[in-house]
Amino acid sequence: MAKREWTRIAAAGLVTAAVLYAIGSGRGEPEPPAVTPTAIDIPALEIKAPLIRLGLVGDGEVELPPYSKPKVAGWFELSAVPGDGGASVVIGHVDTKTAPAVFYRLKDLRKGAVIRVSRSDGKTVAYRVDSVERVHKDRFPAKKVYGGEGLRLVTCGGAFDQAKGEYEENLIVYAAATAPRKRTTL
Amino acid sequence: MKRARQRFATGLVVGLIAGVSLLGLAAPAAAGSQEIKVTLTPAKTLSGAGQDIKITAECPKTGDTQVRALATSSLAFEPVNLEPDAENPLVVSGVAELSKNLVPGTYTVNVTCESNHTGEAELEILGTVPTKAPKAGGGGTAAGVADNDDEGAPTLGVVLVAGLLVGAAVFLLRRRGLR
Predict the structure, then answer these.
(1) B49 pLDDT band (50/70/90 cuts)?
(2) pLDDT, tens only, A45-101
(3) Pairwise CB contact (< 8 Å): B16 & A103
(4) Contacts of A59 in chain B (CB under 8 A)
(5) DSSP letter for each residue of A36-79
(6) Interface list for B 100-129 with A (CB within 8 A)
(7) DSSP strand pairing (B44-47 vs B118-128)
Protein backbone atom coordinates (compact mmCIF):
# COMPACT_ATOMS: atom_id res chain seq x y z
CA MET A 1 0.00 0.00 0.00
CA ALA A 2 2.87 2.35 0.82
CA LYS A 3 4.41 1.71 -2.57
CA ARG A 4 1.21 2.62 -4.34
CA GLU A 5 1.04 5.83 -2.35
CA TRP A 6 4.56 6.73 -3.36
CA THR A 7 3.85 6.02 -6.98
CA ARG A 8 0.75 8.16 -6.96
CA ILE A 9 2.49 11.05 -5.27
CA ALA A 10 5.45 10.88 -7.60
CA ALA A 11 3.11 10.77 -10.56
CA ALA A 12 1.24 13.80 -9.22
CA GLY A 13 4.51 15.68 -9.00
CA LEU A 14 5.42 14.74 -12.53
CA VAL A 15 2.05 15.77 -13.88
CA THR A 16 2.25 19.11 -12.07
CA ALA A 17 5.63 19.81 -13.58
CA ALA A 18 4.45 18.84 -17.05
CA VAL A 19 1.40 21.06 -16.80
CA LEU A 20 3.49 24.01 -15.67
CA TYR A 21 5.88 23.49 -18.59
CA ALA A 22 3.03 23.25 -21.08
CA ILE A 23 1.54 26.51 -19.83
CA GLY A 24 4.92 28.22 -19.88
CA SER A 25 5.98 27.18 -23.37
CA GLY A 26 2.53 27.58 -24.86
CA ARG A 27 2.56 31.24 -24.04
CA GLY A 28 4.58 32.14 -27.15
CA GLU A 29 4.65 35.61 -28.62
CA PRO A 30 2.14 36.05 -31.45
CA GLU A 31 3.66 36.78 -34.88
CA PRO A 32 3.30 40.50 -35.67
CA PRO A 33 1.65 41.24 -39.05
CA ALA A 34 4.19 41.76 -41.83
CA VAL A 35 5.23 45.40 -42.18
CA THR A 36 5.04 46.99 -45.62
CA PRO A 37 5.92 50.48 -46.87
CA THR A 38 2.78 52.43 -47.74
CA ALA A 39 3.88 55.79 -49.16
CA ILE A 40 6.87 57.75 -50.39
CA ASP A 41 7.49 61.46 -49.97
CA ILE A 42 10.13 63.41 -51.93
CA PRO A 43 9.77 67.06 -50.86
CA ALA A 44 12.30 68.46 -53.35
CA LEU A 45 10.21 67.14 -56.26
CA GLU A 46 6.85 67.62 -54.56
CA ILE A 47 6.14 63.93 -54.96
CA LYS A 48 3.84 62.20 -52.50
CA ALA A 49 2.82 58.82 -53.77
CA PRO A 50 1.20 55.72 -52.38
CA LEU A 51 3.16 52.48 -52.66
CA ILE A 52 1.69 49.21 -53.81
CA ARG A 53 3.41 45.84 -53.58
CA LEU A 54 5.17 44.49 -56.65
CA GLY A 55 5.90 40.80 -57.06
CA LEU A 56 7.87 38.81 -59.57
CA VAL A 57 6.32 38.07 -62.94
CA GLY A 58 7.66 35.05 -64.76
CA ASP A 59 11.27 34.99 -65.68
CA GLY A 60 13.27 37.21 -63.33
CA GLU A 61 11.18 40.26 -64.08
CA VAL A 62 9.63 42.56 -61.51
CA GLU A 63 5.97 43.45 -61.75
CA LEU A 64 5.30 47.12 -62.65
CA PRO A 65 2.65 49.48 -61.29
CA PRO A 66 -0.34 49.67 -63.64
CA TYR A 67 -0.35 52.49 -66.22
CA SER A 68 -3.96 53.09 -65.23
CA LYS A 69 -2.63 54.43 -61.92
CA PRO A 70 0.25 56.62 -63.07
CA LYS A 71 0.62 58.42 -59.73
CA VAL A 72 1.31 55.19 -57.84
CA ALA A 73 4.77 53.73 -57.25
CA GLY A 74 5.53 50.22 -56.09
CA TRP A 75 7.77 48.49 -53.58
CA PHE A 76 9.32 45.21 -54.72
CA GLU A 77 8.02 42.89 -52.01
CA LEU A 78 11.03 40.58 -52.10
CA SER A 79 13.36 43.46 -51.33
CA ALA A 80 13.94 44.71 -47.80
CA VAL A 81 11.22 46.52 -45.91
CA PRO A 82 12.49 50.12 -45.66
CA GLY A 83 13.99 50.57 -42.20
CA ASP A 84 14.80 46.91 -41.64
CA GLY A 85 18.28 46.75 -43.16
CA GLY A 86 19.21 45.60 -46.65
CA ALA A 87 18.23 47.01 -50.02
CA SER A 88 14.70 48.36 -50.54
CA VAL A 89 13.65 48.78 -54.15
CA VAL A 90 10.88 51.14 -55.29
CA ILE A 91 9.87 51.32 -58.97
CA GLY A 92 7.75 53.97 -60.65
CA HIS A 93 6.93 54.92 -64.22
CA VAL A 94 8.51 58.01 -65.73
CA ASP A 95 5.49 58.42 -68.00
CA THR A 96 2.59 56.61 -69.58
CA LYS A 97 1.92 56.51 -73.33
CA THR A 98 0.50 60.02 -73.14
CA ALA A 99 1.43 61.83 -69.98
CA PRO A 100 4.03 62.17 -67.19
CA ALA A 101 3.84 59.65 -64.36
CA VAL A 102 4.92 59.52 -60.73
CA PHE A 103 8.69 59.49 -61.30
CA TYR A 104 8.69 61.94 -64.23
CA ARG A 105 11.01 64.36 -62.42
CA LEU A 106 13.23 61.81 -60.72
CA LYS A 107 16.13 62.86 -62.91
CA ASP A 108 16.09 66.25 -61.16
CA LEU A 109 16.89 64.69 -57.78
CA ARG A 110 20.24 65.75 -56.36
CA LYS A 111 22.62 64.31 -53.81
CA GLY A 112 21.56 65.18 -50.27
CA ALA A 113 17.84 65.40 -51.06
CA VAL A 114 15.57 63.87 -48.44
CA ILE A 115 13.23 60.98 -49.11
CA ARG A 116 10.75 59.67 -46.54
CA VAL A 117 9.00 56.32 -46.63
CA SER A 118 5.99 55.61 -44.42
CA ARG A 119 5.33 52.11 -43.12
CA SER A 120 2.21 50.19 -42.20
CA ASP A 121 3.39 50.05 -38.57
CA GLY A 122 3.35 53.83 -38.33
CA LYS A 123 7.11 54.35 -38.59
CA THR A 124 8.66 56.72 -41.11
CA VAL A 125 12.13 56.07 -42.47
CA ALA A 126 14.20 59.00 -43.72
CA TYR A 127 16.88 58.75 -46.40
CA ARG A 128 19.33 61.08 -48.12
CA VAL A 129 20.21 60.69 -51.78
CA ASP A 130 23.78 59.44 -52.33
CA SER A 131 23.85 59.28 -56.11
CA VAL A 132 21.75 59.22 -59.26
CA GLU A 133 22.76 56.88 -62.06
CA ARG A 134 21.74 56.50 -65.72
CA VAL A 135 22.46 53.12 -67.18
CA HIS A 136 21.58 51.30 -70.38
CA LYS A 137 19.00 48.54 -69.88
CA ASP A 138 21.42 45.91 -71.11
CA ARG A 139 23.79 46.83 -68.30
CA PHE A 140 21.24 47.06 -65.48
CA PRO A 141 23.24 46.69 -62.24
CA ALA A 142 21.05 44.05 -60.57
CA LYS A 143 23.49 43.30 -57.75
CA LYS A 144 23.97 46.93 -56.87
CA VAL A 145 20.24 47.63 -56.94
CA TYR A 146 18.97 44.55 -55.13
CA GLY A 147 21.96 44.07 -52.81
CA GLY A 148 23.71 46.31 -50.33
CA GLU A 149 22.04 48.77 -48.02
CA GLY A 150 19.57 51.56 -48.51
CA LEU A 151 16.75 52.74 -50.74
CA ARG A 152 16.80 52.46 -54.52
CA LEU A 153 14.31 54.32 -56.73
CA VAL A 154 14.11 52.98 -60.26
CA THR A 155 12.46 54.47 -63.35
CA CYS A 156 13.20 54.78 -67.04
CA GLY A 157 14.96 57.46 -69.02
CA GLY A 158 17.10 58.30 -71.98
CA ALA A 159 15.85 57.83 -75.53
CA PHE A 160 12.58 56.03 -76.25
CA ASP A 161 12.85 53.16 -78.68
CA GLN A 162 9.66 53.46 -80.75
CA ALA A 163 10.11 50.10 -82.39
CA LYS A 164 10.39 48.26 -79.10
CA GLY A 165 8.01 50.52 -77.26
CA GLU A 166 10.37 51.04 -74.35
CA TYR A 167 12.99 53.39 -72.98
CA GLU A 168 16.62 52.53 -73.57
CA GLU A 169 17.86 53.41 -70.11
CA ASN A 170 17.05 53.13 -66.46
CA LEU A 171 17.42 55.98 -64.02
CA ILE A 172 18.38 54.80 -60.53
CA VAL A 173 18.55 56.85 -57.33
CA TYR A 174 20.56 55.43 -54.44
CA ALA A 175 19.77 56.76 -50.96
CA ALA A 176 21.11 55.90 -47.52
CA ALA A 177 19.02 55.80 -44.36
CA THR A 178 19.66 58.67 -41.99
CA ALA A 179 19.78 57.88 -38.29
CA PRO A 180 16.95 59.55 -36.39
CA ARG A 181 18.42 62.75 -35.00
CA LYS A 182 17.16 66.16 -34.05
CA ARG A 183 15.35 67.80 -36.94
CA THR A 184 17.41 69.85 -39.33
CA THR A 185 15.71 72.59 -41.27
CA LEU A 186 16.18 72.19 -45.00
CA MET B 1 -0.17 10.30 10.30
CA LYS B 2 3.05 12.21 10.43
CA ARG B 3 4.78 9.58 8.33
CA ALA B 4 2.06 9.70 5.70
CA ARG B 5 2.43 13.45 5.46
CA GLN B 6 6.19 13.14 5.26
CA ARG B 7 5.87 10.56 2.53
CA PHE B 8 3.44 12.76 0.68
CA ALA B 9 5.81 15.72 0.81
CA THR B 10 8.79 13.62 -0.22
CA GLY B 11 6.78 12.05 -3.02
CA LEU B 12 5.75 15.42 -4.28
CA VAL B 13 9.31 16.67 -4.24
CA VAL B 14 10.61 13.53 -5.94
CA GLY B 15 7.93 13.82 -8.57
CA LEU B 16 8.70 17.45 -9.20
CA ILE B 17 12.43 16.83 -9.44
CA ALA B 18 11.86 13.95 -11.82
CA GLY B 19 9.55 16.06 -13.93
CA VAL B 20 11.87 19.02 -14.05
CA SER B 21 14.87 16.86 -14.93
CA LEU B 22 12.98 15.37 -17.81
CA LEU B 23 11.99 18.82 -18.92
CA GLY B 24 15.58 19.96 -18.56
CA LEU B 25 16.60 17.32 -21.03
CA ALA B 26 13.82 18.40 -23.34
CA ALA B 27 14.68 22.12 -23.04
CA PRO B 28 17.27 22.35 -25.83
CA ALA B 29 14.59 21.19 -28.25
CA ALA B 30 12.21 23.92 -27.16
CA ALA B 31 11.89 26.68 -29.72
CA GLY B 32 13.72 29.93 -28.98
CA SER B 33 15.90 28.66 -26.17
CA GLN B 34 19.38 30.05 -26.57
CA GLU B 35 22.09 31.45 -24.37
CA ILE B 36 23.18 34.50 -26.38
CA LYS B 37 21.42 36.82 -28.79
CA VAL B 38 22.39 36.64 -32.45
CA THR B 39 21.37 39.32 -34.94
CA LEU B 40 21.60 39.25 -38.73
CA THR B 41 21.60 42.39 -40.87
CA PRO B 42 19.83 41.96 -43.15
CA ALA B 43 17.91 38.92 -42.00
CA LYS B 44 16.06 38.65 -45.30
CA THR B 45 17.57 39.04 -48.73
CA LEU B 46 17.67 37.72 -52.28
CA SER B 47 19.94 35.06 -53.66
CA GLY B 48 22.25 36.21 -56.42
CA ALA B 49 22.41 39.80 -55.22
CA GLY B 50 25.90 39.38 -53.79
CA GLN B 51 24.50 40.51 -50.45
CA ASP B 52 26.80 40.31 -47.43
CA ILE B 53 25.25 39.55 -44.06
CA LYS B 54 26.53 41.21 -40.90
CA ILE B 55 26.33 38.85 -37.93
CA THR B 56 26.46 40.15 -34.38
CA ALA B 57 26.44 38.07 -31.22
CA GLU B 58 26.24 39.11 -27.56
CA CYS B 59 28.91 36.81 -26.22
CA PRO B 60 29.49 37.31 -22.49
CA LYS B 61 32.76 39.01 -21.68
CA THR B 62 35.03 37.78 -18.95
CA GLY B 63 36.86 40.82 -17.66
CA ASP B 64 39.42 42.02 -20.19
CA THR B 65 39.55 38.76 -22.11
CA GLN B 66 38.93 39.19 -25.82
CA VAL B 67 35.92 37.09 -26.63
CA ARG B 68 35.48 35.77 -30.13
CA ALA B 69 32.96 33.49 -31.74
CA LEU B 70 32.37 31.35 -34.78
CA ALA B 71 29.29 31.68 -36.95
CA THR B 72 28.32 28.77 -39.15
CA SER B 73 25.51 27.97 -41.50
CA SER B 74 25.85 24.67 -43.21
CA LEU B 75 24.66 25.85 -46.63
CA ALA B 76 24.38 29.61 -46.63
CA PHE B 77 28.02 30.63 -46.15
CA GLU B 78 31.52 29.54 -45.13
CA PRO B 79 32.25 29.76 -41.36
CA VAL B 80 32.93 33.31 -40.20
CA ASN B 81 34.96 34.48 -37.23
CA LEU B 82 33.23 37.09 -35.12
CA GLU B 83 35.57 39.64 -33.53
CA PRO B 84 34.91 42.45 -31.05
CA ASP B 85 32.81 45.02 -32.86
CA ALA B 86 34.45 48.38 -33.54
CA GLU B 87 31.29 50.33 -32.71
CA ASN B 88 29.63 48.29 -30.00
CA PRO B 89 31.84 46.96 -27.21
CA LEU B 90 29.16 44.55 -26.04
CA VAL B 91 29.08 42.42 -29.17
CA VAL B 92 31.29 40.47 -31.52
CA SER B 93 30.60 40.74 -35.22
CA GLY B 94 31.63 39.56 -38.64
CA VAL B 95 30.48 39.64 -42.24
CA ALA B 96 29.39 36.56 -44.16
CA GLU B 97 29.43 36.30 -47.95
CA LEU B 98 26.45 34.30 -49.10
CA SER B 99 27.06 31.24 -51.25
CA LYS B 100 26.20 31.66 -54.90
CA ASN B 101 22.96 30.18 -56.17
CA LEU B 102 21.40 29.82 -52.72
CA VAL B 103 18.02 28.18 -52.98
CA PRO B 104 15.29 30.40 -51.52
CA GLY B 105 14.31 29.32 -48.03
CA THR B 106 15.20 29.70 -44.35
CA TYR B 107 18.74 28.98 -43.14
CA THR B 108 19.79 28.67 -39.49
CA VAL B 109 22.91 30.56 -38.46
CA ASN B 110 24.62 29.07 -35.42
CA VAL B 111 27.05 31.03 -33.29
CA THR B 112 29.37 29.57 -30.67
CA CYS B 113 31.34 31.92 -28.41
CA GLU B 114 34.78 31.02 -27.13
CA SER B 115 33.06 30.70 -23.76
CA ASN B 116 30.98 27.91 -25.34
CA HIS B 117 27.79 29.93 -25.13
CA THR B 118 25.64 29.41 -28.20
CA GLY B 119 22.88 31.16 -30.05
CA GLU B 120 21.17 31.09 -33.39
CA ALA B 121 19.24 33.24 -35.81
CA GLU B 122 17.36 32.61 -39.01
CA LEU B 123 18.33 33.92 -42.41
CA GLU B 124 15.57 34.10 -45.02
CA ILE B 125 16.37 33.98 -48.70
CA LEU B 126 13.17 35.34 -50.20
CA GLY B 127 13.89 34.63 -53.85
CA THR B 128 16.37 35.08 -56.64
CA VAL B 129 17.44 38.52 -57.75
CA PRO B 130 15.48 39.78 -60.78
CA THR B 131 17.79 40.01 -63.76
CA LYS B 132 15.70 42.05 -66.16
CA ALA B 133 15.68 45.84 -66.13
CA PRO B 134 12.26 47.27 -65.23
CA LYS B 135 10.38 48.82 -68.18
CA ALA B 136 9.08 51.76 -66.25
CA GLY B 137 7.79 54.13 -68.91
CA GLY B 138 5.34 54.35 -71.82
CA GLY B 139 7.18 56.98 -73.82
CA GLY B 140 4.49 59.64 -73.81
CA THR B 141 6.87 62.41 -72.77
CA ALA B 142 9.96 61.28 -74.64
CA ALA B 143 11.60 63.81 -76.98
CA GLY B 144 10.60 63.37 -80.61
CA VAL B 145 7.26 61.82 -79.79
CA ALA B 146 5.30 64.85 -81.13
CA ASP B 147 2.18 63.11 -82.35
CA ASN B 148 0.56 60.85 -79.83
CA ASP B 149 -2.02 59.52 -82.29
CA ASP B 150 -1.70 56.18 -83.96
CA GLU B 151 0.12 56.46 -87.22
CA GLY B 152 -2.12 56.26 -90.30
CA ALA B 153 -5.38 56.92 -88.46
CA PRO B 154 -6.84 60.28 -89.48
CA THR B 155 -7.73 62.74 -86.75
CA LEU B 156 -11.29 63.77 -86.10
CA GLY B 157 -10.68 67.24 -87.54
CA VAL B 158 -9.37 65.88 -90.79
CA VAL B 159 -12.35 63.58 -91.12
CA LEU B 160 -14.82 66.40 -90.53
CA VAL B 161 -13.20 68.70 -93.07
CA ALA B 162 -13.01 65.92 -95.64
CA GLY B 163 -16.66 65.14 -95.00
CA LEU B 164 -17.64 68.77 -95.52
CA LEU B 165 -15.70 68.98 -98.76
CA VAL B 166 -17.26 65.80 -100.10
CA GLY B 167 -20.68 67.02 -99.08
CA ALA B 168 -20.13 70.38 -100.75
CA ALA B 169 -18.87 68.74 -103.93
CA VAL B 170 -21.89 66.45 -104.11
CA PHE B 171 -24.22 69.39 -103.56
CA LEU B 172 -22.63 71.44 -106.28
CA LEU B 173 -22.56 68.60 -108.79
CA ARG B 174 -26.20 67.81 -108.18
CA ARG B 175 -27.17 71.39 -108.76
CA ARG B 176 -25.38 71.31 -112.05
CA GLY B 177 -26.93 68.00 -112.96
CA LEU B 178 -30.49 69.16 -112.22
CA ARG B 179 -30.31 72.11 -114.51
Answers:
(1) confident
(2) 999 999 999 998 877 899 999 999 999 999 999 999 999 888 999 999 999 999 999
(3) no
(4) 132
(5) -EEEEEEGGGTEEEEEEEE-EETTTEE----TTSTT-EEEETTS
(6) 126-129
(7) parallel
Average pLDDT over residues B135-151: 71
Going by pLDDT thresholds of 50, 70 and 90, the confidence category of residue A28 is low
For the domain made up of B34-128, the CATH class stated in words is mainly beta
**Segment holding A124, helix H or strand E:** strand A124-136
**Type of residue numbered B179:** R
Contact A86 B136 (CB under 8 A): no
Judged by CB atoms closer than 8 Å, whether chains meet at B134 and A170 is answered as: yes
How far is residue B139's CA from residue B145's CA, in Å, rounded to a whole number?
8
From CA A93, how far away is CA B133, in angstroms rounded?
Answer: 13
Which residue of chain B is at minimal alpha-carbon distance from A161?
B139
Domain boundaries, chain B: 34-128
Closest residue in chain A to residue B147, using alpha carbons only? A98
